[in-house]
Amino acid sequence: MYPEIQDTIVAVSTPSGRSFHAIIRISGSEAIPCVKSLFAPATNISLEDIPSYSSVKGYIHSSKERINIPVSLYLMKKPHSYTKEDVVEIHTIGSPPLLEILLDILLSERNGMKNGIRFSQPGEFTKRAFLHGRIDLAQAESAMRIIRAQTDLELTAAVAQLTGNLSRQIRQVQDKAVSLCAQIEAAIDFSDQDIELIPANEIIRQLEELRTAISRLLRPSETGKISQGGIETVLYGKPNVGKSSLINALLGKKRSIVSDIPGTTRDVVTDILEIGGICFKLTDTAGVEDAKNNKIAGLTETVQSILKRAQIVLFVFDGSLDLSEQFLEIKVDNLTANTIIIVNKSDLKRTSSHFELPPELATYPVVYTSAKTGEGLEKLKGLLLEAILGGRIDAIPSLMSMRQKDALQRSLQSVQCAVESAQRNESHEFIALDVRAAIDAIGEVLGSVTTEDILSKIFSEFCIGK
Amino acid sequence: MHTEFDVIVVGAGHAGCEAALASARMGMSTALFSINLDTVAQMSCNPAIGGLAKGQLVREIDALGGEMAKVTDETGIQFRMLNTKKGPAVHSPRAQADKKAYQVSMKKRVESQPNLFLRQEIADNFIVDKKKVIGIIGQSGLQYKAKAVILTTGTFLKGLIHIGKFITSGGRIGELTSEKLSDSLRRLGFEVGRLKTGTPPRLNGRTIDYKALTPQYGDENPQPFSFSTEKINRSQVPCYITYTNHNTHKIVMSNLSRAPLYTGQIQSVGPRYCPSLEDKIVRFSGKDQHQVFLEPEGLNTLEIYCNGISTSMPHDVQEAIVHSITGLETTEIVRYGYAIEYDFVPPTQLQPSLETKLIENLFHAGQINGTSGYEEAAAQGIMAGINAALKIQKKEPFLLDRSEAYIGVLIDDLVTKGTQEPYRMFTSRAEYRLLLRHDNADRRLMKYGYRYGLISEQQWSKLQEKEDTITDVLTYMDKKLIGPDTLAKILSRPDCTFDHLFAIDAELCRRHLSKEVKEQVEIEIKYKGYIERQHIQVEKFKRMEDCKIPSWVDYQNISELRKEARQKLLQIRPVSLAQASRISGVSPADISILMIHLAGKGKKITDCINPEESEKAMPHQ
């Protein structure tokens, strides 16, 4: 459970999100052998022959995704590196999915390794640098501060990301595993008592259920795939309510032609807005509106399908005009997506006396914005983020950190081992060994489960005591 | 008058007897005080030794040179190996004990031990000099001098007994209590808590209708507890099984207003794994019957222990409960069940050697540490006895870690996590369960018993012989081919046993292997994969365990530790990074910070973390 200094550690050392360039850093005795087995250099050169602090180009092949990922390698041999261990840096394109693939390849190497290769803990490179004497004693204080700060930061971020739907699902998996573990342990420790012991086929059934549940968490779902390009966010409203201006204001740039002539936006335009590390794919429906009559020419097929696909709908109104009237013209049935009501142009003088929102929309959050003054934009961003973090949108793949994914991956492996033991009809204590390992791995995401927790579960579910 | 000793042990129960024997055998002149010499090694509750995880403890005590297993073998009246349908790691021996015979045998062993002085005495106070205990003041004011004191007081510290509204003081019903000692502990600065436990009514066997009940017999070939016992010679008797029923439950439910556990008369916490009958019925109302074991208390008595209906209900309700049960309709209760509350000293105030952190040379073992069970008590007793002797001899304490023994798990849990209820051992508490088997307790621990002079030369050489044979056989079986496969490979097949091998390999057959050797070889071969996995886990664990935290560490001044972690570390004062990591509220980041702090203070912490790198790592050393 606690980090080992003999292990080889891996981390992405560029900030998450989109940047042109990303670095994966590997430190430890297995760094060079591990990369050597994966890397195909562009020129005929052996990895051992590369001098420290120079680079070599080539690619790493992903057999799963069937792609060659172009990378540059930098080698820093011990003790001439930050950690005073062998360090390999893999420089590549700053694309999160690509980084995930690379990490996946690297970490899947761990099975064959003597000392293991794993994700680094927050601040672990600094810790190693210190423990190996790279950082002098005077800097001990700052080394401790770095570890504290990085841990707290990661913890806050991880916890924030895990609120809502995802953490609920992982929690369910954890509960299932703990419950199964309690049943198995009860059958070991209280087999001499008058309690109902879990039958072998029931153990297998529950393990398979667990395996399915964890696999599902790890598999990018349909919606998840969309989420990888950003959360589908559609701006919808009467022409000329200021949708394009709003998008520009949110992005902080001039994007499409903005004019007072309704329907200036001719096509379905999309753009990516990043809030707190989460990408929203903004789609403007203006391009499919009836430009001539300043009206929506009925709900066209295109608009229908766009709205159907939407994960979030931003329903935009012109705040200077009668709201109910606007609503009548653009009324949509069966709006199932998350909806946020935007009353735009809050800077303009109101020309109508009907500013009450129609009762049909009363349940949705409302934000008053002005693309011109910037009023309400931060609140809108907050609402968008909350829709994700509050778990109302299923966006698992883009939200689970790679470390969390790695932990779940390991729990899946343990469950698989347990299934195999159970199918071989092994005794309970051998199955329990892997179920415990699975629980420990999930515990890295949600907080650990102790023996006391498992005992409590036993005592609450079984009447123990002769 | 003999009032000067090396060690004084207060309390002659299961912990006290083992503590005193170990200390005396290590050459310490040892006094063993008991409130009443007729109840030395009394079984306050059920007449049984061993059971799941507890059986392993007894085997470990035996491997260290303790007495519990030998006395059980000599006096036991029904032996059973539990969990035999499962793997060897969770097989556990259990025996019905003959209560009186057990007591008498243990008392005689204590009396026959040179260096050991049994005394009827009540300890009231300590003589302390500069935070160091130097003696005991008895009930009459008599002063005793000692270099070390071991408290093994069981439930006797302000024991308070409840039967319905009737409340009386006593360490057991009808016995005295120690009213003053826990106040003396408080005055020394100890935190003292209170726990509760209970016991069921005892019946006159003459009045039980056994014909209506199902007997449960022991094993046909009873296996001894002790590695030095050849054979069980005593005659074996059955237990009987019956059940509570709807009527029993109705009686309990309609009398809850008279149950001390529900009226608020009893406030302290009892064990969840050993609830009273009233608790079982209230908490598991869906269960329409509960099993009751009728266990004989000995061969020379008809008294029957009524396992399963521990209760503190008033006398008339206990009568009604018992009479509602099949086979017990006209049974006479000879002793009523009761609940008992008693003082304990939360064990986080102890070092892993069981010496208190507050007062030097004062050791606590057994129920005073919040445990329950004879086996848990005896295990702590022998450890405290050894460590008191070592302390006086100015030697390093004897500590077992979690990968070596259930005893290690037990003590580490107590001193690191403390306990909220009477603590009982379960196999699920042991991370390295597959290695901590009852069958290999001698191979794991006898070396320590021998080191401290508690295991005889003869027993030690017997173990050496066994080890040599095991190595020999394993080597032979790894080499010898039968067709394409080695003998080891063949034995590893699910249904294959040694008998199959003997049939196909004459040379192996000629070796006339003992049952014990065959068992060890078979386990090592059949469970090789799992055992190797646990060994790898243990290796990692040991590395952290070897990172000792020196006592000078000033947690107050490590500002990067979170507040909760700092407080916990201050309270527990862990001896190693591994122990620190097991404290609830101490996170991996806190451990990293601690590691850096220690390295920063010039402590050779990296030596144990990374032996190859250590020299380069700490050039300033």
Describe this structure in words.
- The complex is a heterodimer of chains A (466) and B (621).
- Chain A is an alpha/beta fold and 466 residues long.
- Chain A is 42% helix and 17% strand.
- Chain A is globular and about 75 Å long.
- The two termini of chain A are 36 Å apart.
- The model of chain A is unreliable at 221-227, 262-266, 294-298 and 391-398 (pLDDT under 50).
- By secondary structure, chain B is an alpha+beta fold.
- Among the domains of chain B are: 202-337, Elongation Factor Tu (Ef-tu), domain 3 (Beta Barrel); 457-534, Orthogonal Bundle (Arc Repressor Mutant, subunit A); 546-617, DNA polymerase, domain 1 (Orthogonal Bundle), CATH 1.10.150.570.
- Chain B is built from 23 helices and 22 strands.
- In chain B, helix 1 links the parallel strand 1 (4-10) and strand 2 (30-34).
Number of strands of chain A: 13
Largest sheet: number of strands, sense, barrel closure of chain A = 7 strands, mixed
CATH fold title of the domain at 202-337 in chain B:
Elongation Factor Tu (Ef-tu), domain 3
Number of strands of chain B: 22
Q: Give the terminus-to-terminus CA distance of chain A.
A: 36 Å
Kindly identify the CATH topology of the largest domain in chain A.
Rossmann fold
Portion in helices of chain A: 40-55%
* Span of the ends, CA to CA of chain B: 56 Å
In CATH, what is the homologous superfamily of the largest domain in chain A?
P-loop containing nucleotide triphosphate hydrolases
The most extensive contact between chains is: A-B, 52 and 67 residues
Helix count of chain B equals 23
Strand order of the largest sheet of chain A: 3-4-5-6-2-1-7
Evaluate the radius of gyration of chain A: 27 Å
Helix tally of chain A equals 15
| Amount of helix of chain B | 25-40%
Multimer state:
heterodimer
Give the count of structural domains of chain A: 3
Q: List low-pLDDT spans of chain A.
A: 221-227, 262-266, 294-298, 391-398
Organism (chain B): Candidatus Brocadia sapporoensis
Function (chain B): NAD-binding protein involved in the addition of a carboxymethylaminomethyl (cmnm) group at the wobble position (U34) of certain tRNAs, forming tRNA-cmnm(5)s(2)U34.
Subcellular location (chain B): Cytoplasm
Binding site for NAD(+) (chain B): 270-284
